[in-house]
Amino acid sequence: MDDTLRTRYAALVSWYEPTESFQAIIKPLVASAIGRSNLKFRPDAEYFLIVNCSEMILRPYGEPIPKPPIWWEPGERPSTLPVFRGLKPDTVVPMIEKALDIVIANVIASDEEVSSHEVLLAIDRGWKELAEMLWWG
Fold first, then answer.
1. SS3 readout for the chain
2. How far apart are CA 93 and CA 28, in angstroms?
3. How far apart are CA 23 and CA 33, in angstroms?
């Protein structure tokens, strides 16, 4: 990976700012999962996991999502979409931990650092289990 790009991804990991207080758990969850793996992850791979866990799991599953104004009925006031299966941020965290474990278990170790591309391939290898667990089927 280009050194300048590596530095930029490392900065994004360092500067990652959750939009909601409960999203602050994502970065430590990713760091913990990576630490347990004994694999070396490039900054782009770490950032990919942070963004995906935050934006593709925590936010749609456990965060209040405002109903877009274009969907409002006449006279309707601002509201949020119904929660998904009654999940809340604290009930989604164990799902994120499990998803991270599945993805990292599917990383094919090599002498090189794990890239975001390898994380994508690991997601593909673990897709059946992830899709079942996260209702992506």
1. CCHHHHHHHHHHHHHCCCCCHHHHHHHHHHHHHHHHHCCCECHHHHHHHHHHHHHHHHHHHHCCCECCHHHCCCCCCCCECCCCCCCCHHHHHHHHHHHHHHHHHCCCCCCCCECHHHHHHHHHHCHHHHHHHCCCC
2. 11
3. 16
N-to-C CA span, the chain = 34
Residue showing tokens 């409002």: 72
pTM: 0.87
CB 69 within 8 A of CB 79: no
The tens digit of pLDDT for each residue in 54-76 reads 989 998 998 888 999 988 989 98
The phi-psi region of residue 38 (left if phi > 0; otherwise alpha if psi is between -120 and 50; otherwise beta) is left
User: What are the CA-CA distances from residue 51 to residues 72, 83, 93, 121 (Å)?
Assistant: 29, 21, 14, 17
Distance between CA 27 and CA 93 in Å, rounded?
Answer: 12
**Structure tokens belonging to residue 81:** 């979409």
- Which residue carries 């274009």 as its tokens? 70
